[in-house]
Specification:
heterodimer, A: alpha/beta, Alpha-Beta Plaits, six-stranded mixed beta sheet, 11 helices, 33% helix, B: 266 residues, mainly alpha, 2 strands, 2% strand
């Protein structure tokens, strides 16, 4: 079903080069023939995305997420590799592609700061060559879905960050894009605003089958919004799997909480494969590597060591899993 | 068609913005009154000391020539250089590169829209005041004045945008274009007749003003001169040649710049 594919990325690489001064050379040589240093921001990544999918594209700072998203939108030119979005090559068909996609850059605003939000929405409608009637209908629709009414006539610069981000997303959807690419859309938002934005994106995905491709450091975005997660680090794709399977990546680690019967008075050395992650007089948390010791054996040994009132055994949360993935990739373990 | 609609919309939006926040109009008015007013008073005195005529020119022609310069400067088309530089430095360029528009055309229309409201208001009010104060030169009443003035004004605007777009686009390579901007801007000011009216230029400097793009972008300052009736088509030809030449450079630089984009965090 090739026509069900919205994005195809093959062997995508981006290298940035910059001049560096050689401390051993004179200033004339450094001025006219400086040394060059090259950074591989994205290194030979390949993946594809189906229509209507919700993709989290995650990685630590400097991993190459934003560079990839900018190559997908035609802002940056790849050093090598190919990108096809809805059949368009972003390097050659940037403007045609722009009619089909929406972009939100969490740290930059595309709205007109001094004027009411309606002016920005109308302005983008014109930019996307929509008729007056179409613009009005779409604005009415977005106002309803995104609940923009309370601040529609307020100058954009007077909106709260949460309101502005809702407005940013609404503006990027004015032309009914088939794909929306969001670069850290929830950055700086409080929990309520984050939830509201995620709910809206889910709604748009369900109602308009808009493909969502987002980069984020927020586990909540990934967990609640995305059905698939692609992990990138040092420019290399290191995981591409359904989000629900992400937590199972580290099933060899189990966490055990031990609640003290009275209080813990000491913290003895633990058997091989078990280590403390939290210890105080009321509660101890240990992590068990089940490749080295199974849960049953761990519990038996822990009960020999401690007098406990209650025990809880659970898997690592998603944030811990993601941190492990990053750390494991960095240390190469 | 789409481009025209977008251009009109940009200009409309910015006029609305300027009307809601008239601070820029006040700043522009003060700037013109301070700069142009002081120079006019100085030149009025200098002409008076020379029995009203210097280099076969009277204060009336000089004043209107300077007024055209300052009126044109209110459009602030030179600002495109710094706007592009700020877009590149802040990374904001990525927002516009993700839209179905030409970044450069968008910025050009944005620049025009930013200054047009102040330009119209200040030009109308100041020309009335100047007429009441000193009258207008007879050259303005000649039939071909208005069409040739309009043409050279429009070509001057296009040429100014070309010159400063080149400066702005350089920021894709060298990021801080302020030193280059300063040199170009001062060249335009001097050769355009800001400090010294072009009618008072020595012959060599007059030739440089005539044949350089810096001077050519402000040929409107020549329009009040009696010689304008004889050489307007030549000057407009010079403007067209520079627009053609610099237009190619702008286009080439823009295409190269697109491939050169590098944004923080990507």
């Amino acid at each position: 079903m090739k026509n069900n594919i919205a994005i195809t990325v093959t062997g995508l690489t981006k290298k940035f080069s910059y001049s560096v001064k050689n401390p051993h050379s004179g200033w004339i040589k450094n001025l006219f023939a400086p040394g060059t240093k090259e950074i591989v921001a994205v290194n030979n990544i390949s993946f594809s995305v189906k229509h209507g999918e919700r993709i989290a594209f995650i990685g630590p700072n400097g991993a190459g997420k934003s560079t990839t998203i900018k190559m997908l939108t035609g802002i940056l030119f790849p050093t090598s590799g190919t990108v096809s979005i809805l059949g368009f090559d972003p390097t050659k068909d940037r403007k045609k592609l722009a009619y089909q996609i929406g972009t939100v850059f969490g740290q930059r605003s595309q709205l007109l700061p001094n004027l009411p939000l309606t002016d920005s929405l109308e302005f983008f409608g014109v930019m996307y060559d929509m008729s007056k009637q179409d613009i009005n209908d779409r604005i009415a629709e977005l106002v309803r879905v995104f609940e923009l009414d309370p601040f529609l006539l307020q100058p954009v610069r007077k909106l709260s960050l949460g309101q502005r981000m809702r407005a940013e997303v609404a503006a990027s959807l004015i032309h009914r894009p088939k794909i929306i690419l969001l670069d850290e859309p929830t950055i700086g938002l409080d929990v309520v605003a984050k939830k509201s934005l995620r709910d809206l994106l889910l709604k748009i995905n369900k109602e308009e089958n808009t493909t969502i491709f987002l980069t984020s450091h927020d586990v909540g975005d990934i967990e609640t919004l995305c059905d698939r997660t692609i992990v990138i680090n040092h420019g290399t794709l290191i995981k591409d799997l359904p989000t629900e399977n992400l937590a199972k990546t580290f099933v060899f680690e189990k966490y055990i909480d031990l609640i003290a019967e009275v209080r813990f008075t000491g913290f003895p050395e633990l058997p091989l494969g078990i280590r403390y992650t939290h210890q105080d007089e009321n509660k101890i948390t240990v992590v068990v590597d089940i490749n080295k010791i199974n849960v049953q054996e761990s519990l038996r040994k822990l009960l020999d060591l401690f007098h406990v009132e209650d025990i809880d055994v659970y898997n690592a949360d998603l944030e811990t899993v993601i941190r492990h993935i990053y750390e494991r990739d960095t240390t190469g373990n | 068609m789409k481009e025209t609609r977008l251009a009109i919309n940009i200009v409309k939006i910015l006029i609305k913005d300027r009307m809601l926040y008239p601070g820029k109009l006040i700043v522009d008015t003060f700037s013109v009154v301070a700069r142009c007013g002081i120079l006019l008073i100085l030149y009025w005195y200098v002409f008076k000391l020379n029995n009203g005529v210097i280099n076969n020119t009277t204060f009336l022609f000089t004043a209107w020539s300077m007024f055209f310069y300052f009126s044109f400067s209110v459009l602030h088309l030179s600002g495109i250089a710094r706007t592009i530089m700020q877009d590149v430095q802040s990374g904001n360029v990525e927002v516009l590169f993700s839209k179905p528009v030409s970044y450069l055309l968008y910025r050009i229309w944005w620049q025009i829209g930013s200054g047009i409201f102040s330009f119209i208001i200040i030009s109308i009010v100041a020309s009335i005041l100047l007429t009441l104060a000193i009258g207008f030169p007879p050259t303005i009443t000649i039939g071909m004045f208005l069409p040739s003035f309009t043409l050279t004004f429009l070509l001057g605007a296009v040429l100014t945008l070309c010159v400063y777009s080149i400066v702005g686009l350089l920021s894709f390579w060298i990021e801080d274009v302020n030193p280059i901007f300063w040199i170009v801007d001062k060249a335009v000011m001097i050769l355009g007749g800001s400090y010294l009216p072009i009618a008072l230029f020595p012959p060599l400097m007059y030739k440089i003003a005539l044949y350089s793009p810096f001077g050519a972008s402000l040929f409107i300052t020549h329009t009040v001169s009696p010689s304008w009736q004889n050489n307007w088509y030549e000057l407009i030809g010079i403007q067209l040649l520079w627009i053609f030449g610099l237009g190619i450079i702008v286009y080439w630089m823009y295409e190269q710049a697109r491939k050169k984009v590098s944004v923080n965090g990507g």
